[in-house]
Write a structure and sequence with these properties.
- This protein has 712 residues and is mainly beta.
- The protein has four domains: 152 residues, Immunoglobulin-like; 317 residues, Coagulation Factor XIII, Chain A, domain 2; 116 residues, Immunoglobulin-like (Sandwich), CATH 2.60.40.10; 93 residues, Immunoglobulin-like, CATH 2.60.40.
- A hairpin with a 6-residue loop joins β11 and β12.
- It is globular.
- The N and C termini lie far apart (63 Å).
């Protein structure tokens, strides 16, 4: 029997659009490409394809058709990187859902229609398809046809056999399919939801993710395990390991060599630049990393949400405490005298991600939301990666469970210890104050199914998912449970608390200040004793980066005074705008330090407060009606709140289905001037959409705005 007698494949039809609709991948631009649509499937489901032959039709019992699906450079069925589907007849047998299989649905004179089932645990990414034809009685003779296009297979949170399955399926409309969201940024008391375009269905996204995955060195056989894949994502969205990751982190304030973090409107421009240049993209900060992580996870089919921790701890030595040191004059000491390898810090806010999955590597009950963090803070297993850490493990203080639970417990629930120089103490410093309530003041994410462009109705507090209620015995029990798992933490928590004696102190919290307003630092002191007390007090105000790193001294005041028994004193430091405007750095964060010493008893107290100087939002004006596929003019504007000229001004605008990343330069903006600029949009689809804008200049940045747009 000659080779000419074998079935000769002319072409394969993958019914890209029809299969995509069933697999919930029909929103991907790659699927809808008018010239060369790409097939995108989800594992754990079936898809249909047709094969056309040039020389004959399929004969049952005589012809064999073998579909071979390959993944990676060395496909192997034992490693789940090769799937083999043999078609010899239309007879349907009982099939094992865990392996590849296919059924013949129909046959014509020169075609066959085949249904293929994808196992729910195969690796995700690009698969290749080959068709082999042979005769049943002489299988050694074969003809091979290679399908010329890529086939993507993704995670499937809609089927229960997949480890990323989410039982409450309606939430997947938010955590997998939603393209626009919010990321809460800012100090506690003034945090606002910053608009972010995830854009996970853009044509550049999946190719950029494949570039990232191939550079990660994660074995192809492990790319179906969401635990390993999400950990890899936390490693590769930053580039600190010099492994060709996506984003370069920078908190310096000088972004002349790239794009300022505050200028990004979403992930698409970042991933497009990464794909085009094949180089890490400058620059990102925690919320930018988290926005890109959400894009990557949702594109791959892993449910994901962005999480913002207001007042977040960065524990460098696994002590489960944030240690602040003061000299004998009650002034803060830079660095950590007991930890030469690093200094603990408190970020005004820190942003990471939750991803949803089962955890078969952990005991029952630790699946569901898992925290991953792509911001390069501390190494884990020698790489800048973090998670997935089970939220239940974080809440219970179960630091023995993978991955990085101890670091996450510190981030949301560390105690803040203040130490003062004391030559009589064995450590050289005595503990003067312990604040058990300062860290993890509020943990936020976006509420599903709501988008509020002008307010916070879409804000959801999830603090209780990460820790027990502050002040309760359960919260102390979970923290002490974590302490028992750390030898370093045991030593810090074993140090005795010093009695507060007969003086009481309080630093008044400042929630927010509008730029150009005067603010006041206020300490209230009460003498609850029966004797006169002599007090020494210091109040200092610094501008700081949101990571807690000091930038510039704004004002400092100190003084000594006496307080009779029962007296109440208020110390006040007033700071007008002229004192702070030229000292602010990006995001307008200010930190107040207060320290007081009682000379008679050596009682010492110290505290601090963070707040944000807020900027005006961008006003976006739109017509009452916006038609489909017709150019419509909108305007963007805001008032310059500063008494200085704004130079090198740019608006960045983006909205899925409205317009791609758009940069508009505008002339210098004079002090207190209202600026307005026109932009054009041409909507590509009907319904409700969101437009996001940012403004950046040399003197003022982190100005944002968004608007809902209904296209008829």
């Amino acid at each position: 029997m000659g080779l000419r007698d074998l079935l000769n494949v002319e072409t394969i039809y993958l019914y890209v659009a029809q299969n995509a609709s069933l697999h919930k991948t029909d929103m991907f631009d790659l699927v809808n490409d008018p010239i060369e649509p790409t097939a995108i499937f989800r594992r754990g489901m079936k898809f249909t394809l047709a094969i056309r032959f040039t020389n004959a039709g399929f004969s049952e019992g005589y012809d064999r058709i073998c579909l071979r699906f390959d993944y990676g450079p060395t496909p192997n069925p034992l490693k789940s990187t090769r799937g083999v589907v043999n078609i010899t007849s239309s007879k349907v047998e009982d099939q094992d859902e865990k392996i590849w299989y296919g059924n013949l649905l129909a046959k014509g004179d020169d075609t066959v229609t085949v249904e293929v089932s994808i196992p729910p645990s195969v690796p995700v990414g690009i698969w290749r398809l080959q068709i082999e034809t042979s005769k049943i009685n002489s299988p050694e003779r074969k003809k091979t046809y290679t399908y010329p296009n890529d086939i993507y297979i993704l995670f499937n949170p809609w089927v229960c056999e997949d480890l990323v399955f989410m039982p409450e399926k309606r939430l997947l409309d938010e955590y997998v399919l939603q393209e626009v969201g919010k990321i809460w940024v800012g100090a506690y008391g003034s945090a606002k939801g910053r608009e972010w375009v995830f854009g996970q269905f853009n044509a550049c996204i999946l190719p950029a993710i494949m570039l990232m995955m191939d550079r990660s060195n994660l074995p192809h056989s492990s790319r179906g395990d969401p635990v390993k894949v999400s950990r890899m994502i936390s490693k590769m969205v930053n580039s600190n390991d010099e492994d060709g990751g996506i984003l370069i982190g920078d908190w310096s304030g000088d972004y002349s060599e790239g794009t300022a973090p505050s200028a990004w409107t979403g992930s698409v421009a970042i991933l497009q630049e990464y794909l085009d240049t094949q180089e890490p993209v400058p620059f990102g900060q925690c919320w930018v990393f988290a926005g890109v992580v959400t894009t990557v996870c949702r594109a791959l089919g892993i449910p994901s949400r962005v999480v913002s921790n207001l007042v977040s701890a960065h524990d460098t030595n696994s002590s489960l405490t944030i240690d602040k040191y003061y000299n004998k004059d009650d002034e803060p000491i830079e660095g950590d005298p007991n930890n030469p390898n690093g200094e603990d810090s408190i970020w005004n806010y820190h942003v990471w991600n939750d991803v949803w999955m089962a955890r078969p590597d952990l005991p029952s009950g630790y699946g569901g939301w898992q925290a991953i963090d792509a911001t390069p803070q501390e190494t884990s297993a020698n790489f800048y990666q973090c998670g997935p850490a089970s939220l239940e493990a974080i809440k219970q203080g179960a630091v023995c469970y993978n991955y990085d639970v101890e670091f996450m417990v510190s981030s949301v629930n560390a105690d803040v210890l203040r130490w003062k120089e004391d030559p009589h103490h064995v450590l050289g410093y005595a503990k003067i104050y312990c604040n058990k309530y300062h860290i993890g003041r509020m943990i936020l994410t976006k509420k599903p199914f709501i988008y509020d462009p002008n307010g916070d109705r879409d804000r959801e507090e999830i603090t209780s998912s990460y820790k027990q209620k502050e002040g309760t015995e359960a919260e102390r029990v979970s923290l002490y449970n974590a302490v028992r798992g750390s030898e370093i933490a045991k030593k810090f928590f074993a140090m005795p608390d010093r009695e507060m004696e007969d003086m009481e102190f309080e630093l008044k919290d400042i929630d927010k200040v509008m730029i150009g307003e005067t603010f006041e630092a206020i300490i209230t002191i009460k003498n609850k004793g029966k004797e006169v007390r002599h007090i020494g007090a210091v109040i200092t105000a610094y501008s700081v980066y949101y990571t807690g790193v000091k930038a510039h001294l704004i004002e400092k005041a100190k003084g000594d005074f006496s307080m009779p028994p029962g007296a109440v004193e208020t110390l006040k430091m007033t700071i007008p705008p002229a004192k702070y405007l030229d000292k602010l750095v990006e995001y307008g964060m200010v930190k107040l330090y207060a320290a007081v010493t009682v000379k008679e008893t050596r009682q010492t107290w110290a505290d601090e407060d963070d707040f944000q100087v807020l900027k005006p939002p961008i006003r976006i004006q739109i017509p009452a009606e916006i038609p489909l596929q017709k150019n419509t003019t909108i305007s963007l504007g805001f008032k310059n709140p500063l008494n200085m000229v704004l130079t090198k001004c740019k608006f960045y605008v983006h909205g899925p289905a409205l317009l791609k990343n758009y940069i508009l330069a505008c002339p210098d903006v004079q002090p207190q001037q209202n600026v307005s600029i026109a932009a054009g949009i041409s909507p590509r689809s009907l319904g409700e959409h969101v437009l996001v804008a940012t403004f950046h200049s040399s003197e003022l940045h982190d100005v944002t705005g968004s608007v809902k747009i209904h296209v008829y």
